[in-house]
Design goal:
- The structure is a single chain.
- The chain is α+β, with helices and mostly antiparallel strands and 248 residues long.
- The protein has one domain: Roll (T-fold), CATH 3.10.520.10.
- The chain is built from 6 helices and 12 strands.
- The strands form 3 sheets. The chain has an 8-stranded antiparallel beta sheet with strand order 1-2-5-6-9-10-11-12, covered by helices on one side. A two-stranded antiparallel sheet has the order 3-4. The protein has a two-stranded antiparallel sheet with strand order 7-8.
- A hairpin with a 2-residue loop joins strand 5 and strand 6.
- Helix 1 packs antiparallel against helix 4, helix 4 runs antiparallel to helix 5 and helix 5 runs antiparallel to helix 6.
- It is globular and about 50 Å long.
- The chain starts with a strand and ends in a 12-residue tail after the last strand.
- The relative contact order is 0.12.
Length: 248
């Protein structure tokens, strides 16, 4: 059973495999995404992050918000400053929050006993178990120069996969070390990780690194990456091929 809703400015799809799926679980998951959007969207003037950017005193920040901002700082340290949510004095934790929210949504499904499912929020994906055919999930990587074309299919059963790039949303990711320079040497990088929270945050940082991003992913234990340059050349990490689907 599959449902899709437009939340957080993007389509979010939840597919659950099984003959006994309670429809209420979809509402719970989508309501959670709506909660996240209401709290962390910088486009909503009454969201907590917008109020913080407008000067809300730290003593009034929620415990969860403080935790998210600490996680962002941790990621900044882990990526040598390439993951930075502050630009022009304004905080935008969306590069971390989306993957975190998908991971939490997956935990909601698992808590209710579901083991075979797929959550896709704007192209960032967490899978669990097997698809309706009893096989591992297949995820397609789109050609950034022709979004109707799938250039690679990868097979996953427990992992998360995130893609960062400019071909959908334009230049929304920047290099914090050179904030005035647009990232032009690459167009997309896809990262497979143990879960979507980590895959997403490291994909964002790797994209900000430009061509060096694939080297950063190569050095991360349990992560694989696939980068496409502006000249339509692809570079992958040493273990990425192990995920490439052999199925037709």
């Amino acid at each position: 059973m599959k449902q899709t809703k437009l939340i957080m400015g993007m389509p979010i799809s939840v597919e659950i495999v099984g003959s006994e799926v309670d429809h209420k679980i979809f509402k719970e998951v989508f309501d959670y995404f709506r909660y996240v959007d209401g709290k962390y969207s910088t486009y909503k003037p009454d969201s907590e992050i917008s109020l913080i950017n407008a000067g809300l005193p730290k003593k009034s920040w929620s415990h969860e918000m403080k935790m998210i901002l600490r996680m962002c700082e941790q990621t900044k340290r882990q990526t040598n400053g390439y993951f930075d949510i502050v630009r022009g004095g304004q905080r935008d934790p969306s590069g971390l929050v989306k993957g975190w929210a998908i991971q939490n949504a997956a935990s909601i499904l698992a808590k209710h006993g579901y083991r075979n499912f797929y959550i896709d929020a704007g192209g960032d994906i967490q899978v669990s178990g097997k698809n309706a055919k009893g096989k591992p999930w297949q995820v397609g990587i789109r050609n950034p120069f022709n979004r109707d074309e799938i250039i690679k299919k990868i097979t996953l059963s427990t992992e998360g996969v995130a893609t960062s790039g400019t071909y959908v949303r334009g230049q929304h990711i920047y290099n914090p070390l050179k904030p005035k320079e647009a990232i032009k040497d690459i167009v997309a990088i896809t990262v497979i990780g143990p879960d979507i929270y980590n895959a997403d945050r490291f994909a964002t940082a790797a994209y900000a690194m430009g061509k060096k991003g694939i080297e950063f992913i190569e050095k991360l234990k349990d992560y694989e990456g696939y980068m496409i340059n502006k000249d339509k050349t692809a570079t992958m990490t040493s273990g990425f091929g192990g995920y490439v689907s052999r199925q037709t």
